[in-house]
CEP76 C2 domain-containing protein
Amino acid sequence: MYSKEQITKIRQLINNYFDKGEVFDKLKKKIESEKIQIDDLDNEKLTKLLRETNLIDNLILDIKHLDEIDEYNKQNKQLTFVDPDRINYRSVSLRIFKGKAFLDFIEPENSKLQLYLSFCGQRFASAIVDASVEPEFNELFLFDLRTEAQKANVDLLTLSKLDHPIELCVIQIQNGQRKLFSQKLIEWRFLLCYGNISLNIELPTTYNTKMQNERKNHVGILQIHLELLPKTGLVLLPENIVVSQLSKEKSVNNQISDRFHTYGNAWWNDFKELKLSVRPIKLYSESQDGIWRPSCTFIRELQSVRGIMSPNHAARFVSLIPMKTSDRGPSGDRLEVWHRFPTFLALKGGDFEDHCLLLCSFFLGFNLDSFVVFGSTADRPHGWVMTRLQKPKKPNQKQAEYAYNFWEPLTGHKFELNDPKVAQLYKRIGCIFNHKYFYANIQENDSVLKTDLNIEDYTKWKAVDPNEITLLKPQNFQITLLRQTIYADELEPKLEIQLREAIGSYRKIINLATRYDEKLGSIMQIALANYETEKITGLQFAQFEFQSAIRSYIPEGHTFMSFPICFNHMNIQKMLEDIKTSPVGGEVLTARGDQTYHAVRVKMEIYPEDIYAVWVSVSVRFHKIV
């Protein structure tokens, strides 16, 4: 028996099916070929015609497939995030069954695995499963092949020219830490020849897994099944068309790569002839698959990304993604690996380069003139993002003038060029680039304060020919951010309880009792609500109300102290350590006196991808004993 929801879906499927012009065209041709008069048609004859033209059988196939999807939805945690009528449109169905020969997990040591898939701006995440030699993923995903502009089916010949593989990331999770276990680009276009394909995908080693065992070429096998949907009315392509297209793309990409390599070598030799001081020029960078690629190809203009409403929101979102220092190789040198955006988001962390590339790409999507700046701080390589805003032109002014801002991707802070903090944070500038342009700093003095940022001045900046960059194949595509799966109203009370217990235990060690004031905590909620808004907009609200509430609540002669702090993790012990080591926080935790009451309040702001800010306020009111 079908549920009410399934019946609704089937009705919708039938309506959509018969709305398609091809159904009625086939039926009309059949009626004309049989020379049947419309007046002579009855239910019995119509049903017979529908069966003879296979229209009913094809519809039943689609309903059966809808049934399969519903069954998967019941058995597995989540499926596809797609509309019920999606089955009527050109899609790729990807089933992932299980893994084999994951030999790193003969002794899994509480490891978990999670899959992330990206294709044509669509991203999905699997459920987290236990790591084992044969992990059971058992997932089903649907990728839409319709054009975004028209939301219409695209013919198969056009699809054969869609040079966009399905990107698969396998993430290992252990002790709360994520690392890239493997990644694979899956070529799906042979589906246009066969309709469905079963594959055993060999998962290659990455920079992480290769360090553990230099002899390994792959770390496991993944059983998958690909299918082109809907199954009805498909006229498949001859195999030679797809083979020819793939061969042509490979040849063109190799030619472009060789051409840029030749050009880049000549450009670099010219640069070296200038005999400047050593400075970081990132013409090429190593990608996550171990291949050195032009740095400009890692940046992409990201437009209309849901969940990122403004450049300020973009800066805040990127700053909350945890900073994870790159691993070090056998020689002890830092492994400088630049990740593609889906991998960076799946890892929920990365080094400063990953933050820079994503933030610059968000800014470009808002039509800001944005660049990644690669240089250094006082003691290490570093990168940040520069935006330049064109000032209104004065009468008879020929050359444009710009106002420059530096954005620190690890904090989200924006600095005008004349801000004293700029000189404190950043020391040298080696190169500036985005998805269209690359400029190397050829000024004698490359310090931040002395560098002229007019990149159009060829006497101060050596440019790569933009026409050469335009030919390059980008490493990143348009992305969609995954919806949140964690919720503040569930987590905030739990974190408050855990923090109270941790603070109570700490004060007990130093022979201090701890009592909590619920009303004081409620008042602190006003301040906490302000902090995240202020981070994004720079504006404050309800300050007068908060101060008035505190003044009227704290008894005369009593001392009130409060310490707010923001975290991008939920590790209670780390939180407590950070509060203790802060001068104000430590004083709040160790406060002693008559009628001493503490308050702990937590406010979470959750962004897409389960990236979050945890605002914690620890407060105390007490009467000092003289």
Observations:
- The CA atoms of residues 375 and 539 lie 32 Å apart.
- Residues 68-86 have pLDDT under 50 and may be disordered.
- The longest strand covers residues 594-606.
